[in-house]
Specification:
- The chain is α/β, with parallel strands linked by helices.
- It has a domain of 168 residues: 3-Layer(aba) Sandwich (Rossmann fold).
- The protein has 12 helices and 19 strands.
- It has a 9-stranded mixed beta sheet.
- The longest helix has 20 residues.
- It is globular and about 60 Å long.
Length: 440
């Protein structure tokens, strides 16, 4: 049974298996002086640019709105106008390359574009020494993920991926219970969502809405005519721009599994679903990853279910009064001494009668100041964030491996050291060519 993790070991453990924190220099509040990296460390408001300002972008803009919003960028002029009305002093851009190239003395860049533009925008900002907050998944391909993870290790870069639920107290409590050995050694775990982003079919040639710069929306992807309905959200259904339901929601739900079980790189992955379509993501997917022994933790398997599919073991769970368990999206940890069922805001230990007199371990994980606040605090002081890009890179890599295995149509072995599978066709999906002017 795994022992309780001491507080002082928390950061090391959560970033195990190659997910180290970028060194940001001394953690100190400095009044207008330069850090060892030459970057200004501010107590006054940070100078922030936000790329993508509606939907998730609007939420992220609100999350950093207490700072000085210096620049806004969106390929949709209506969206840009709405955000600009709220922040009239901010400069407005349609092309994020022009924004990042401009002499704006930025501290932070927030990236909330569709998946296929995450890496080009984030990499450009990191190379210019900016702190970067990027929505999940971290990037569109595994090679892009690895590039961002490496760039973020340069001194002076605070980073955070937008897995906002990571800041919640319930996730922390589940991690504390699993790490304390409350249900023994965990040998398998599941995550599932009923949501589906599926069946996208390319229908290029429509007339784009007048407010949308379609060429800039495409960014690094090949030039095609406008696809009716793809903007502002349905791009998630298309492999060229999104990553389906697994890519969208996996970074939220599998985050807890990676955190609690200290998962590093898997060794194998397989996935099933409807017949593979070259263009559109599937209506459901079931993926399984194998992970090796990790310190005191035994080998384990992780399973993902979406589109209404759920693990069969859920049907065996009964409440203490014998009634069936009613649960929406969630996670299930299966241990040698019991099971833990959870979601974003609650958890239950099973069998309930066994844990009726259970005394939970004391809370030891630091409570978060808030997901955006963590990032802004790190930008000011050099303190670590918990969803920093190295941690997020490992999580996103695992998630995207599931989409690759599904599209490859066969089980794959994975070499985390080289970042390659045992299958040439699958390896071809780990990167994608970029149009001229958009190279990572």
């Amino acid at each position: 049974m795994a022992g309780t993790l001491p507080r002082r070991s928390f950061l090391k453990a959560t970033l195990a298996a190659g997910t180290t924190v970028a060194t940001l220099g001394p953690s100190t509040a400095v009044h207008g002086i330069l850090s060892s990296t030459g970057r200004r460390v501010r107590e006054e408001k940070l100078r922030v640019a936000v790329i993508g300002v509606r939907n998730r972008g609007a939420a992220n803009l609100a999350g950093v709105s207490g700072e000085q919003i210096v620049a806004l960028c969106d390929v949709d002029s209506n969206h840009l106008q709405q955000a600009g009305d709220e922040f009239p002093e901010a400069k407005r851009y349609r092309d994020y390359r022009e924004l990042i190239d401009a002499d704006l003395d930025l501290d932070c860049v927030v990236v909330s574009t569709p998946d296929h533009n995450h890496a080009p925008a984030s990499a450009m900002a990191l190379r210019r020494g900016k702190h970067v907050y990027c929505e999940k998944p971290l990037a569109h391909t595994i090679d892009e993920v690895r590039t961002l993870g490496q760039l973020s290790l340069e001194p002076g870069r605070a980073t955070q991926m937008g897995t906002q639920i990571h800041a919640g107290d319930n996730y922390r409590r589940v991690v504390e219970l699993i790490r304390s050995g409350a249900i023994g050694d965990v040998t398998s775990a599941h995550a599932w969502v009923g949501k589906t982003w599926s069946d996208g079919r390319l229908t290029p040639g429509a007339t784009p809405p007048p407010q949308l710069d379609w060429n800039l929306w495409l960014g690094p992807r090949p030039e095609v005519g406008y696809i009716q309905g793809v903007h502002p959200a349905n791009w998630r259904k298309y492999w060229a721009y999104g990553t389906g339901t697994l890519g969208d929601m996996g970074c939220h739900y599998m985050d807890l599994l990676q955190w609690a079980l200290e998962l590093g790189a898997p060794t194998a992955v397989r996935a099933e679903g409807p017949p593979v379509h070259e263009v559109g993501a599937p209506s459901w997917c079931h993926a399984t990853w194998a992970f090796p022994e990790r310190g005191s933790m035994p080998p384990c398997t992780i399973e993902w279910w979406d589109g209404g599919r759920r693990p069969e073991i859920l049907s065996t769970l009964k409440r203490s009064d014998g009634s069936p368990v009613r649960w929406g999206d969630g996670h299930l940890f299966v241990g040698t001494e019991g099971m833990l069922l959870s979601d974003y805001g609650r958890y239950v230990l099973f069998p309930e009668e066994k844990f009726a007199d259970f005394s939970p371990p004391p809370a030891w994980l630091p409570r978060s100041r808030g997901h955006h606040a963590e990032f802004l605090h790190a930008a000011r002081t050099g303190a670590p964030t918990l969803c920093n890009f190295p941690y997020a890179a490992q999580l996103t890599e695992t998630v995207l491996l599931g989409t690759v295995a599904y599209r490859a149509g066969r089980p794959l072995t994975w070499d985390g050291a080289t970042g390659r599978t045992n299958d040439p066709a699958a390896n071809a999906m780990l990167s994608e060519a970029a149009r001229e002017g958009w190279v990572l």
